[in-house]
Amino acid sequence: MVLVGVPGSGKTTVGRLLAQRLGVTFRDTDLDVEQAEGKPVPDIFVDSGEPHFRALERAAVATALREHDGVLALGGGAVLDAGTRALLAGEPTVWLQVGAAAGAHRVGLDVPRPVLLGNVRGRLAALVQERAPLYAEVARVTVDTDDREPDEVADVVLAALGLEAPGA
User: Which of 35, 90, 97, 40 is nearest to 65 (CA)?
Assistant: First the structure.
């Protein structure tokens, strides 16, 4: 399965839980890009710009979808790229939906994320509004994560996709 959502939606935390429950591996395309470039995402944004980063991200998503059969988390802005959205067609994609207040609480106010610089809560609110139609376009399932613990979110995701953890 593929997890999408804005920063603070729980993609990494819930993704690791889902992978553990399903007995598969977890992979994060932001980490793939960082490994390939040898530097963190914020540095790629500053040094090479967002268009360059999105191209690297699209390539990382294509590779991960081809090679990885576990739980995959995409960067929050991956859906901005039409090519990346096309890659997700037919994939069991889950939009982990979060409101700006809950997302800001989860990521904190002092975060090294280029898209959240300045007013974290305000930027998250703008990202939620801007990206919601794109997340809805690629998602087979939408799960609201506000006021839910990661274990509960994982339960809801599994149920929504009709999956059971081995031994459950």
Answer: 90
